[in-house]
Specification:
Blueprint (H helix, E strand, L loop, with lengths): L2 H7 L25 H8 L14 H14 L3 E5 L2 H10 L7 E5 L4 H13 L3 E5 L5 H6 L5 E7 L11 H10 L4 E4 L4 H4 L9 E5 L13 E5 L5 H4 L3 H4 L10 H5 L3 H14 L5 H12 L1 H20 L4 E5 L9 H7 L7 E6 L2 H11 L4 E2 L9 E3 L11 H6 L7 E4 L5 H14 L2
Parallel strand pairs: 2-3, 2-4, 4-5, 5-6, 10-11
Antiparallel strand pairs: 1-7, 6-7, 8-9, 9-12, 11-12
The structure holds pyridoxal-5'-phosphate.
Length: 423
């Protein structure tokens, strides 16, 4: 099946007499006729569900669909994008390990790494989002266990050179983890360019309707944990799970199996079945929505670029954008609906503009079907110092405009009248 058809049909395949629409299995637990049968599930000798924290049919359908869309061997839904990023690192790093990460990643992920995981003993070196090979290599330490970046960073819209990051990571036999939230697998498949693990905040375009928070970790199955020799947690027996050696028992699915049996078991950051159901509704229309988001965003970016009141526009679909060529390589059909720009008059003008919008709403959210707008420096990224903001490519006047799927004429009209109000 092609991508559009997979969005509708992959994961859940109803049999004779079963519901056509993927059902919500709203049950914490599952019954078995004997303790032995259940024991086999605990020992990972048999497949099945026993407790929703570790697995649930509704979650399973959606996990299979997303794994298929990304081209991975397995996926695990989480309660939020934050939980997905946390698990993606914790699954292979412990106190004393080190990670190279892009400084341009989402502010919440930056704080998770720079504060919480650092406090827990995992060290991070942040490099520019468009770091050169030399800069990436200079950040490596003896204890480096992973590289982490975003395909298209939020909100600076740096287009990552995934192949470069993957090559540098693989030279020292560690995996590249990529947050693919903004382009979604419709616009970019990081695995095709060498990424090993993909994470998403499904709260964004994958759902698209702003009705659930969620995340997902997807395993490409391509990284050779045994050959690397750096991940005893995957290649030696896990005493906390009946002595299982993940690489021996689960082969290519070692990483994603451990994420579930070890970390989901211990952290309990699972998605709710109802949220997985809502996410699936969003996934069904992902391709048509992304097409419209990209079309509308292109028009908005071109309109802003030709407006005297705008000091700068950042959208990788503009030929003037420094990442235009790279975006064509990694996201040939479009990037996403987010456009960032600055208004002449700086922070004050930005606030006036946002307050004057009538249709677009001022929200913390992004990647919604409804056009929405945010000033990151005073909201999502307010914990960051000026230096950290600059490293992340976020200026004080940056407005993050998330273009929805309304009629483009209405969006442009709203922007026009808000700009008039700033005169
Ligand atoms: N990754 C990116 C790129 C994001 O934009 C966000 C949230 O905005 C997250 C991760 C965190 O996701 P969530 O808000 O679902 O926890």
């Amino acid at each position: 099946m092609k991508f559009e058809s997979k969005c509708l049909h992959s994961g859940y395949e109803p049999k004779n007499g079963e519901p056509r629409v993927m059902p919500i299995v709203q049950s914490t637990t599952f019954t078995y006729e004997s303790s032995n049968e259940m024991g086999d599930l605990f020992d990972l000798k048999a497949e099945g569900f026993f407790y929703t924290r570790l697995g649930n049919p509704t979650l399973d359908f959606v996990e299979k669909k997303i794994a298929d869309l990304e081209g991975g061997v397995g996926a695990m839904l989480t309660s939020s994008g934050q939980a997905a990023s946390l698990i993606s690192i914790m699954n292979i790093c412990k106190a004393g390990d080190h990670v190279v990460a892009s400084a341009a990643i989402y502010g919440g992920t930056f704080n998770l790494f720079n504060k919480t995981l650092r406090d827990m003993g995992i060290d991070f070196t942040f490099v520019p989002g468009d770091a050169t090979e030399e800069e990436l290599k200079a950040a490596i330490k003896d204890n480096t266990k992973a590289f982490f970046t975003e395909t298209l960073t939020n909100p600076a819209l740096v287009v990552t050179d995934i192949e470069l990051w993957a090559n540098v990571a693989h030279e020292i036999k560690v995996p590249l983890i990529v947050d693919n939230t903004f382009p979604t697998p419709y616009n970019c498949n990081p695995f095709k360019f060498g990424a090993d693990i993909v994470v998403h905040s499904t709260t964004k375009y994958m759902d698209g309707h702003a009705v659930q928070t969620g995340g997902v970790v997807v395993d490409s199955g391509n990284f050779d944990w045994v050959a690397s020799g750096k991940y005893p947690m995957l290649t030696t027996p896990d005493e906390s799970y009946h002595g299982v050696t993940y690489t021996e028992s689960f082969g290519k699915a070692a990483y994603i199996t451990k994420a579930r049996t070890h970390l989901m078991r211990d952290l309990g950051a699972q998605a709710a079945p109802m949220n997985a159901f809502l996410l699936n509704l969003g996934l069904e229309t992902l391709p048509v929505r992304m097409e419209r988001h990209c079309f509308n965003a292109q028009k908005v970016a071109e309109f802003l670029e030709n407006n005297d009141m705008i000091s700068w526009v950042n959208f990788p679909g503009l030929e003037s954008n420094p990442y235009y060529d790279r975006a064509k390589k990694y996201m040939p059909h479009g990037t996403c609906g987010v456009v960032s720009f600055g208004i002449k008059g700086g922070r004050e003008a930005a606030t006036k503009f946002m307050d004057s919008l009538k249709m677009a709403s001022v929200v913390t959210h992004v990647a919604d079907i409804r056009t929405c707008v945010l000033h990151p420096a005073s909201t999502t990224h307010r914990q960051l110092t000026d230096e950290q903001l600059i490293a992340g490519g976020i200026s004080a006047d940056l407005i993050r405009f998330s273009v929805g799927i309304e009629n483009i004429d209405d969006i442009i009209e709203d922007i026009t009248q808000a700009l008039e109000a700033c005169k």
